[in-house]
Amino acid sequence: MSRWENKYVIGLTGNIAVGKSYVRQMLQHLGAYPVDADQLTHQAMAPGAPGYKPIVETFGKFILDPDGRINRTRLAAIAFSMPEALAALEAIIHPLVRQAIHILVSRAKQRIIVVEAIKLLEGELADAVDSVWVVDATPETQLRRLLEKRSMSPEEARRRIAAQPPQADKLKRADVVIMNDASPEDTWRQVQAAYEEIQRKLSPQPAVPPPTIQPITRPVSQVSASQAPTLPGRPTPAATARPTQPAAAGTPATGRLGQPVPSSGGAAPAGSASSAVLNPKTPIVIRRGMPGNAEAIATFISRSSSRQVARMDIMLAFGQKSFLLAYGRNDALIGVVGWQVENLITRVDEFYVMPEVPKAEVLGELIGAVEDASKELQSEVSFVVLPRTLGPEVGPGLVRRGYAPLKLEEIRFPAWREAAQDLLAVPASDVLIKQLRADRVMKPI
Question: Quick one: pLDDT band at residue 267, thresholds 50, 70, 90?
Fold first, then answer.
């Protein structure tokens, strides 16, 4: 076993642009606790963080932006041009990142942990994990991803690829190889099969994902079915928005205790759209979206917004974020939120809800479930980006849940401020903030 008691730790690695983060996100969907060493590196060099002053003293003040932050592109250009410079940078950063990883893994409630680290096999971390997973892709795919997703020039992309140890050396030390060159479904099948093998090793009984999401069982509205509006000529949501294909084997939709949530099966009874999903006694049940729900999520988003979304769009999105789904009467899908935790920061930035249901109630419960899941992922702060098109009734409900309008000048931590600046640039939206935990992993000095 790993150096952490009662934890099974996957060390996830692979060269640049092979899709490591996509695989890490897939493992998170399956129930593993994710650690991103690259994001911890960014935190370690933020102003006031333990690595900031040593890096500036080593490389000079010309690596700083006008606001005093380290320009990571400028620093990377120096570090990747000279082996001595890269070694000096790693000597500063790696001990700080190892300490942060230890804190996160030790206090994680999940038994299976995945640590993504591009330098996994070059340091001490390789000896601390239970198995090494290597994500692979062809050089042509790597180059294309760097050009398309990171806007690098062909020369810069080739230089970054060449600066890394040969991928073949990593593959020789792999316990599991995930080939991420084909479709998202193909990658998902590989990840799921390897994860289920770990579960079988850890428990003789079939395992389910750990508790992350709580089913909400209280009434969500006092609007009766007869009072709620009906959209003429529109199919009932239960028939159009419920999942059209089951979750993949071994990945049931789950409630808070991780137990499968039974589906009612069949189509909703005929009648008004609102009567199919709500009455004063109807509870909302929150479930975690899985790749098996991709078609249902795409259909719901397309029908509840001006966006036209395909199933493949959602499959690709699963490599970046998570979805929570709200279900009403007759197992009808009535709301969806998209969210992610990166750098121990939660960002909720996609909202879709049926027009017939009370938005404030449905979205409030979805945000509450996001918070519960975020705390399981040890997130330190939650940002909610509310489109103004949702109407004025949603914001006050979130304020009652402890959120406050974002004021950039009141944010003390650089990582939070950097995330907040990006979110404030989203047009036609209001940003709210809520601190989720007081103790921070990368404590300022």
Answer: very low
